[in-house]
Amino acid sequence: MPINVTVMQYQPPPTTTPHSDVVPAVVSVLVIVVLGLLIGLVIYKRRRFLQAKEHSDVGVKEQETCIHLEKKVSAEVSEQPEEYSNDHINVKAVDHSCDGTSEKQPKPSPKPRQEASSPQATPSPEEPKPFTPVPSVRIEDLADYIDMKKLAGENGFKADYKTLPNLQLNPWTVASKPENKQKNRYLNIFAYDHSRIVLQPLEDDPHSDYINACYIDGFQEENKYIACQGPNKASLRDIWRMVWQLDVDKIIMLTNPVENGKTKCMQYWDDTGPVTYADMIVTTVKEEVFLDYTLRDFYIHQIGSEDHSRLVRQYHYTTWPDMKPPEYPTPLLNFMRVVNAEQTPGRTVIHCSAGVGRTGTYIALDAMLEQMAHEGQVDVLGFIYQMRQKRIKMVQTSEQYKFIFDALLASFLTGDTVYNADVFRQKLSALKKSEGGAKETGMARQFEILGKLSVSPSVDSRKPKAAITPENLDKNRFQDLVPTDRARPFLRLKMHGDDNDYINANFLPGYRKANVYIGTQMPMLNTVADFWRLVYDHKATTIVMLNTLDPNDKTMSCYWPQEGRIEYGPLVIELNETTKYKSITKRSFTLYNKTSNLEFEDSWVVTQFQYHDWPSDKAIPSSFDGMLTLLELSTQPCERTNAPVIVHCIDGYGATSVYCALMALLDQFKFEKAVNVFQAAHRLRMVSINMMYSEHHFAMCYDVLQDYLDCLASTYENCIW
Known about the structure:
Layout: H1 22-63, E1 137-138, H2 142-151, H3 157-162, E2 196-198, E3 210-216, E4 225-228, H4 236-245, E5 248-253, E6 258-259, E7 262-263, E8 275-277, E9 280-289, E10 293-302, E11 310-317, H5 330-341, E12 347-351, H6 357-375, E13 377-378, H7 380-388, H8 398-414, E14 419-420, H9 424-431, H10 442-453, E15 505-508, E16 517-521, H11 528-537, E17 542-545, E18 565-568, E19 571-581, E20 584-593, E21 603-611, H12 625-639, E22 645-649, H13 655-672, E23 674-675, H14 677-687, H15 695-713
Parallel strand pairs: 4-12, 5-11, 5-12, 16-22, 17-21, 17-22
Antiparallel strand pairs: 1-13, 2-3, 3-4, 6-7, 8-9, 9-10, 10-11, 14-23, 15-16, 18-19, 19-20, 20-21
GO molecular function: protein tyrosine phosphatase activity
InterPro entries: Prot-tyrosine_phosphatase-like, Protein-Tyr_Phosphatase, PTP_cat, Tyr_Pase_AS, Tyr_Pase_cat, Tyr_Pase_dom
Pfam families: Y_phosphatase (PF00102)
């Protein structure tokens, strides 16, 4: 309380009286008392201020760990420092057990002063903001709706997404306990109390009932999904306890263990043998790798109960970037088809790293596909709002939100393009007819949709760079058919001082792996040496030639020795033998570098298959018989090596894409007994929009497959299959 002190103006003393000596003494005493009171008051207030500040500092430090202090509504998930420095180590390096006592213990949190009231351990949930639902979108209006939202820019998808609640909505008391802190991978992603998975506690560990996982409702089914974070070191055992306790038979993994050099998820299985987690033993019994995903089968059982094991299948999608949507929706839709094709009685666990971004997007898309099938409409925003009542930040970015709409449209436009062998002929017959009186056939409609879905949102990554530089222009046979830098193979060996790393070529995928093929143009006079540099640098052992040599085309060059040997700089190509088949010539060469000291490593056999039935000026071959022979002859060499197969036609995009698509489709048929021509063509278009540029090429894939299936069903002995 402020004290007012009035300073009186000095007055001369009055005439001296008998008591005049007492007055100065009294005044002096009063002044000293007042000054003492002032000094004491200042000291008292200063001490109270310091105590309050110290208490406030403690409270702030504790609250800094709370999600509720997040300031940016659309901020990315901030990664929590792991309690374990060896979080990246594979489980098998820890004696096949995750229950060792050598793990670091979490440091105790600083305690506030005893006289200060302790702040709340769990922040108060966010006061829900008013949420304005948007009307459901009829599926036939979806394309126009997406175009409208994209044209609206910031007022379109982003504006709708920002209406979603983004912070904590419900208590997460259990997740916030000090004993559970290390089980949370991120500081701002906890499991709500009301929706969390409650594990059966382990003996002597009352806090072992927590895992960062939540029930999420489906379109019609309550608690259909389990959304989970990617396990860290502290929660490795818990994911398998949850799988066992809840009868889970499907795990959908949407992250890779390490992405961009950062640990996103501990590998919670062993690649070679059994591993123990708490009282669970997990054994990997099968692994199959595909282009976009990997399938793994595990047998799990409790210790001492080997006779009561269960089969759990993991569906691991491997090509989804963190914090972003996939570039194209069709590979993910195909993955979801594989997941949903197996109807199993158990529950499904879905996880990425935080268990909200990719996980939320997957769940929303799966549920909306179900709503689309049942009602012919979708309510994406409303479904995400409901998900966020059970788990924070589900669908983490506006780009992921927009991607859900793009994926729904892609699914609606394409329909089911997977055809089993027993119905393939009927499906193909229907595709060749007009639909409902329309002028275009079903085949033409599919090819048109292929073009629409092949437009990449990443425009910059689709622009050629090296291909259009002045020094490389004359290396392109056609200036409108050139590769992008992200897809082209680089040349390393130099023959002359002005050689660079460019050749007009693209890495192309197969059914199971990326970069199985290198598609390129027929070498020109000035690029023959570059062609053999390509073969040498990428250790290729097989060349497939799909065009004929036109003697009237002076740009064509017979790039191989017809007898003896030829040399290009340090590279020597020797003809070993020539074998003739109907429509096919097979040649064997030895390729070596005469300047290399590594005589055996730099020398190998290269086999060339030349196909004679496809003139460069014709859209399709004169007969498909030779194509079936070519596919059969070139399959075995391709399977014996991990090196890419060099495939070329006149331009490197037309006939080349047909061959690569057919090889992938034959592999798919062997595994699934079904084929998806649309998907195979689209995978090539994802590399370059110019791949399979003709509807004739697209239709040819169907026709060759029909001949292949007829050959399989034939009793004729001359069927090479």
